[in-house]
Amino acid sequence: MLGMEWLLTFTETVKHGSFAAAARELGTTPSTVAKAVARLESTLRLRLFHRTTRRVTLTSDGERLFDRCQRVISEIEELQAEALGTLTRPCGTLRVDLPVVFGRERVMPAIIQLAAKHPELRLDVRLSDAFVDLVEEGVDLAIRIGAMSDSRLVARRIASQDWVLCAAPAYLDAQGRPEDVSALAGHRAILFRMPTSGRDQVWHFREGRRQRDFRAVAHFRFSDGEAMAQAAELGLGIAQLPDYMVNRQLDAGTLIELLPNCRPPSTPIHAVMPANRMVPARVRAILDELTPLASASAQRACAA
After folding, report:
1. Alpha-carbon separation of residue 61 from 17, 31, 55, 58, 193 (angstroms)
2. Is 88-157+268-303 assigned to CATH 3.40.50.300?
3. Antiparallel, parallel or unpaired: β 218-222 and 141-145
4. pLDDT tens by residue, 111-155
5. Lower CB density within 10 Å: C or N end of the chain?
6. CATH class of the region 163-265
7. Helix/strand/coil (H, E, C) string of 38-57?
């Protein structure tokens, strides 16, 4: 019969990529971790890891086991919480995955406020603009920007973002201000490299009732939105960025919005969770903390 400690040790080894790192997390020694994994492999008669002197990586059998372990461990945590009478109180580890800037600017204050209210709650927060597999990574909740298409996820809309085309006054003085979308072809573009595809992000506009996509030629390319905003502020060219990244610069006058009448429709922002899984109290609690974001987005939309 499989020992639960073996499965927990296996799961931590996967998450941390080495026996030494897993041992630090579990408060034991690397040799103890390695022996537990070896016993698990022997019992299952499967090779779960490819091993090197520095790291371990999953085999295909290991990937299948890890996927199942994540679901089993999550359910056991919920059963333990129910047995202790804490099902309605946020506890355990809240694992969240956030886009870098929106996560830091808008979501982190809510998460920190939640942790202050509930001392029994632990946090595992990941900030990345790349999408992760929530089930495979054992993530409770992620924030996704854009339309939802993954049927394995349950989504709740928590906010929206507006796209702002902008440039510095010095750039516009030197290069002129574009009067329409077509005129952008003659300007220097600061573009975002999409983390998933590696492609340049397309600029989006609305002309009357028609939506228009514009594929600018990259003069400057970045994988970080804040770096793009800084480049635009320094006068390198024109960028299209989320409103929350440039609102301060627009208010200060160091960036000027271009073609405001051509702003595209707002992009939805969702909190997403794996489907077909009980929603722990810790996830319900963070959803409640994020609810004011939706109200704030609605107010901004009405003001616009």
Report:
1. 16, 23, 17, 8, 34
2. no
3. unpaired
4. 999 999 998 888 999 998 888 888 778 888 999 998 777 667 888
5. N
6. alpha beta
7. HHHHHHHCCCCEEECCCCEE
